[in-house]
Amino acid sequence: PPEAVSGMTATIANGQITLGWTAPAYATWYNIWLGTGSPDWTPTAFVWLDADTLNCGSGGTCTIIPFTLPAGEYVWYIRAWGPGGFSTGGLVDAPGWAEGPDLVLP
């Protein structure tokens, strides 16, 4: 399986969030969870994205502008999928998932 995603970035402009990350070798799909954090953990998005559609099927940097969100605080996590299953490593309490920087939309 692919390694855990790394190099996660998030930028905000005009209420739109752009998420980016470094594609691990062998990743063919990405699973993204974006939502409010503790204590509610309410998902705003839980999506699967094809590496080729994101133009990072051969490695490099993956980038997506998921959608415009209302003001608030958000957290996001991502895991890769490839031959052999989900990514390895990542968070201790959620293997395979990598945590992105918190997002605060004014």
Question: What's the layout of helices and strands?
Answer:
Elements: E1 6-13, E2 16-22, E3 29-35, E4 43-50, E5 61-64, E6 72-82, E7 85-86, E8 98-99, E9 103-105
Antiparallel strand pairs: 1-2, 2-5, 3-4, 3-6, 6-7, 6-8, 6-9
Structural class assignment:
mainly beta
Shape: globular
The low-pLDDT segments are: none
Number of helices: 0
The whole-angstrom Rg is 13 Å
Mean pLDDT: 90
Structural summary, described in words:
The protein has about 110 residues and is mainly β. The protein contains no helices and 9 strands. It has strands at about 5-15, 15-20, 30-35, 45-50, 60-65, 70-80, 85, 100, 105. Strands 3, 4, 6, 7, 8 and 9 form a 6-stranded antiparallel β-sheet that branches.
Q: Main traits of this protein?
A:
mainly beta; 0% helix; 3-stranded antiparallel beta sheet; 6-stranded antiparallel beta sheet; 106 residues
In brief:
The chain has about 110 residues and is mostly beta strands. The chain contains no helices and nine strands.
